[in-house]
Amino acid sequence: MVKEADIVRTSLADEDADELRHYYYQMLLLRRFEERTGEMYVKAKIGGYCHLNLGEEATIVGLMAALKPEDYIFTNYRDHGYVLARGTPPGPIMAELFGKETGVSGGRGGSMHLFDAERHFMGGYAIVGGQVPLAVGAAYALRYQEKPGVVVAQMGDATTNIGAFYESLNLAKLWKCPVLFFIVNNGYGMGTSVAMGSSEPDLWKKGASFRIHGEQIDGTDVLAVRDACRRLRDYAEREADPVILDMVSFRFRGHSVIDSDRYRNPEFVRKGRQEHDPVRNFATLLHEHAIIDDAWLKATADQVEHEIQEAIDFANASSDPKIEELYQFMYATEVANTPGPEDAIAAVKINRGEV
Amino acid sequence: MPIITYRQALNDTLGEELKRDPNVLLMGEEIGVFQGSYRITEGLLQEYGPKRVVDTPIAEEGFVGVAIGAAMLGLRPVVEIMTINFILVAIDQVVNHASKIHYMFGGQVRVPLVIRTPSGGTGQLGATHSQSFENWFAYCPGLKVVAPATPYDAKGLLRAAIRDDDPVMFIESLALYDTKGDVPEDDDFVVPIGVAEVKRTGTDVTVISYSRMTAVAMQVAQRMANEGISVEVVDLRSLRPLDRPTIIASVKKTNRAVVIAEDWYSYGVTAEIAATIQEEAFDYLDAPVQRVAGIETPLPYAKDLSAASKPSAHSLIYAIRKVME
Fold first, then answer.
1. Number of Cβ pairs closer than 8 Å across A and B?
2. Mean pLDDT across chain A, nearest whole number?
3. What range defines the domain where residue B282 resides?
4. Would you call A11 exposed, middle or buried from its count of C-beta atoms within 10 A (0-12, 13-18, 19+)?
5. Which chain A residues are Cβ-neighbours of B67 within 8 angstroms?
6. Active site residue B262
7. Is residue B187 part of a domain?
8. 3-state secondary structure of B48
9. Which of A209, B45, B50, B64 is the residue whose CA sits 20 to 30 A from B106?
10. ipTM score above 0.90
11. Would you state the pLDDT for residue A7?
């Protein structure tokens, strides 16, 4: 899937063993969080649309390892892993998926609309392409206020076919905005393959007419992702210049939890999961270099299970958002002639047949 | 109080807010070097420089999105959309993003953004350059929508909008830019968002209007006074939040209501106001509420047809006479 020459192989000799173990831990946390999320969806604990990051663990963990606290991240609706890897505790994330008041977005957002202002995670957005100009705007603000940092505009491969993407490329270059256009290229936009939807299937080339540098990176190799992101992040910040990262990865399941994935050849999927599993491949690599052993793997797996179970328990024990707070967050600046808690209670009672 | 034009009131306010707050910046097509398609931003690039007055390419979806993203990090962009017709290519950013970000993310981030744009149209601008879409935005929870009719309100509401932490659609009118009125020199007066004003008191019939139609209503009210009909004019000033109590109080007093707006008749602003009146003042009405709005075609170019398709003083007088029968 990635040309051999494009891959920068990293020698483990220069690596910090604790850091490598941490990457594995984070990838396993994402993997198991998403698998358990799938289970919770089937149990109807989670409603609406729900998109999992399964298969994209190395892409996410590698990116987060490269980013600095001052950087900002905007993603699409497939956002659970990004918030987790940025450091938000699993409990409030799971609680948001459950629609609870303790959720990261107060139960107002759901799976597709996670947010963590403190960690500069500026939201998951569910209208394809919508987050891309927002990310350029955040980078514009950093430049305007002469602050350090870059902004990640994460998107799927199919987003590179929408107009907002091209307007964003043009404005980011024109206005010298340090943006990483971070394309998670899992080969499919829902059921439409990259080749079916894009007249230029090499997505990293799509910045050419905007004079934006692009690279294709093996998104299943956490170290390759981290190194490329570090290098391009520093370039973007130093030169106040946007870049495109075409992160090639493999989607383990259908587009969303309810997609039965009928359009992909089962053999292709089976083989992909076997060959491009970033978590297992990284474990094998660390094992080969004697950085981890079976006992460590077992202990790490137990710890991850425990953390996720705690998150599920936290979500289960949390309360639903209060009816009287239905209008809370409508406006940041108070304004006349807007409904309040009593109006919310009255309206909800009628809608529930309680009057 | 000095008498200035609506255009001057906007220009003064933009300049004063640029001066007051370094996070305020203007963005839009042709607002700097060209000095503004309708000269609202005249002289501001020269005074405040290209960092504060930003000429954008023709990419409304892109630069409106950039403004929203910049607002999320603390800037206070004031975006000019040349006419409201062009905002349709940016409507995803306004409706799916600006209006929802504060609520949907549990109040964690604010979007202090103003989008200024003239709506409606006169003078044979044709089907695609004469539309009124403020009702599309007034429909959307999370936005604030204001539409001042006078230089005084233009200044007071623009100031309030720029200092507000929510996305505000600021609706102007080409036909109002040269109108004149008193505007105080007081640096800090604001007109509160969400509050209507009784622009003229009367006892026989309430006319409810906003923006250019308020100017029409004021002229008609004067004329009707000569005929012995006392017209009260309620100028909405804000479409969202809508000041229902002021509308209802007036109708309960006069027992008759005419609603006028420049947008198309069906599903337009007049429908919302008429529905509100029948819900909250039905027993006070001595006649059915009359609505005056645009004829429902793509606006034709031909001079006579074009003028005849828009609501006018004539159509308002016709409606007032009808409720007085």
1. 163
2. 94
3. 197-324
4. exposed
5. 137
6. no
7. no
8. helix
9. B64
10. yes
11. 44
Residue A34: C-alpha distances to residues A7, A78, B189 (Å): 28, 11, 54
Question: Does residue B189 lie in a domain region?
Answer: no
Q: What is the mean pLDDT of residues A3-16?
A: 63
Contact A337 B242 (CB under 8 A): yes
On whether both B85 and B14 belong to a single domain, the answer is yes
Grade residue B147 by pLDDT with cuts at 50, 70 and 90. Answer: very high
Show me where the domains of chain A are located: 4-321, 325-355
B24: nearest CA partner in chain A: A144
Q: Which of B165, B241, B243 minimises the CB distance to A332?
A: B165
Q: How confident is the model at residue A273 (pLDDT cuts 50, 70, 90)?
A: confident
Domain boundary among B153, B182, B211: B182
Any idea what DSSP says for residue A146? Answer: T
Sheet strands side by side (includes A72-76): A121-125, A72-76, A151-156, A179-185, A243-248, A213-218
Q: Taking the CB of residue B188, how many other CB atoms lie within 10 A of it?
A: 8
Kindly indicate the confidence band of residue A264, based on its pLDDT and cuts at 50, 70 and 90: confident
Query: Is residue B219 included in any domain, yes or no?
Result: yes
Which residue matches tokens 């599309």?
B136
- Opening angle at CA A228, ends A222 and A234, nearest 5: 130
Question: Which residue of chain B is at minimal alpha-carbon distance from A116?
Answer: B108
Residues B233 and B317 in one domain: yes
Residues B169, B32 share a domain? yes
Asked whether residue B130 is assigned to any structural domain, the reply reads yes
Does A127 reach chain B within 8 Å, measured CB to CB? Answer: yes
* φ, ψ for residue B126, nearest 5 deg: 85, 180
- Say whether pLDDT at A6 is over 50: no
Q: Do A134 and B109 touch (CB under 8 A)?
A: no
Residue from B48, B64, B66 whose CB has the most chain A CBs within 10 Å, to mutate? B66
Q: What is the CATH number of domain A4-321?
A: 3.40.50.970
Each residue of A194-231: pLDDT tens digit?
A: 999 999 999 999 999 999 999 999 999 999 999 999 99
Mutate to test the interface with B, among A322, A328, A335 (most CBs of B within 10 A): A335
Residue in the block written with tokens 């509401």 = B157
Contact between B241 and A107 using a beta-carbon 8 Å cutoff: no
Task: For B182-212, give the secondary structure using H, E and C.
Answer: ECCCCCCCCCCCCCCEEEECCCCEEEEECCH
Of A13, A49, A4, A55, which is closest to residue A272 (Cα–Cα)?
Answer: A55
> Where is the domain boundary, B152, B182, B212?
B182
- Whether B201 and B289 share a structural domain: yes
Q: Quote the CA–CA distance of B263 and A304 in Å, as a whole number.
A: 59
Query: Could you tell me if B262 and B211 are in contact, meaning their C-beta atoms sit under 8 angstroms apart?
Result: yes
Q: pLDDT at position A10, please?
A: 52
Catalytic option among B29, B60, B172, B197: B60
Residue B151: give its domain's CATH number.
Answer: 3.40.50.970
Hey, is the C-beta of A121 within 8 angstroms of any chain B C-beta? no
Q: Is B60 a catalytic residue?
A: yes
Tokens linked to B108: 């964690």
* B95 vs B249: CA distance, rounded Å: 32
Looking at the structure, tell me whether residues B147 and B44 fall in a common domain.
yes
Facing residue for B106 by CB, picked from A115, A170, A333: A115
Task: Find out whether A68 and A120 touch, Cβ atoms under 8 Å.
Answer: no
Average pLDDT over residues A288-292: 94
**Counted domains in chain B:** 2
Query: Scanning every residue of chain B, which has its alpha carbon at the shortest distance from the alpha carbon of A142?
Result: B73
Minimum mean pLDDT range among A10-24, A88-102, A277-291, B35-49 = A10-24
Q: Is the pLDDT of residue B322 over 80?
A: yes
Gap from B291 CA to chain A (nearest CA, Å)? 23
